[in-house]
Amino acid sequence: MEQIATAVLVIVIGVGLLLVARRNRKRSGMDWETEALARMHQKGNKPDMAFSAGRDAANEAGRAREYHIPMLPASEPEMRTFYLDLLGMTEMRAPNHMSAQDGFWAIIGRRRVYFGLHPAFETDPADILMLAVPHLDTAAAHLNTAGHAVVWDTRYAYARRLGVVDPAGNTITLIGG
Questions:
Q1: Domain containing 63 — which CATH number?
Q2: Fewer CB within 10 Å: C terminus or N terminus of the chain?
């Protein structure tokens, strides 16, 4: 009889802890991706391609938009530095159906971006990549320090945004996230 009471008590405590954790997660307003990145940064770790594998699978349902940023044949190192280091995008492994392509993939928010010569998916040339950057002023300072001129767009009082040209000559827009 004591063993049954102990087992019930352990189950009740476990369910209670799960409910409290769930409530705290809802209160924080962060999704799983933001929480995981915050935990990694607290530990001093940087997200790597293994981290993005789960994100890749989670976005297969079509929630993520795919963009193609053309790059010159020899510009991959500069493009990696620009997008991954200066803008803080996270490199991800190529989606399974596109793993044989040249170039590399990166993700920020719900935007998956392919940097390469020939995409295997259709893109709209009218799409201008607009990235939400968490710390826009810091990103602008990093870009200026690295020699990339930023142009602030002051047309809209309700949004902070800027334009910058990447190493391959593509103009992108960055907005405060």
A1: 3.10.180.10
A2: N
Of 130 and 16, the structure prediction assigns the larger pLDDT to 130
- Would 15 be classed as within a structural domain? no
Could you report how far apart the first and last alpha carbons of the chain are, in Å? 57
- Tokens for 68? 């193609």
HSE at residue 118, side-chain half, CA atoms within 13 A, is 3
Q: Is the dihedral of CA 124, 128, 133, 138 positive or negative?
A: positive
150 located within any domain: yes
CA 110 and chain centroid, separation: 7
What is the residue range of 48's domain? Answer: 35-176
Number of structural domains found in the chain? 1
| Residue 96 forms part of a structural domain | yes
Q: Kindly report, residue by residue over 116-166, the tens digit of the pLDDT.
A: 876 555 555 566 778 888 888 999 999 999 999 999 988 888 888 999 999
Distances (CA, A) of 7 to 1, 10, 17, 18: 10, 5, 15, 17
58 falls within a domain: yes
Distance CA 153, CA 159 (A): 9
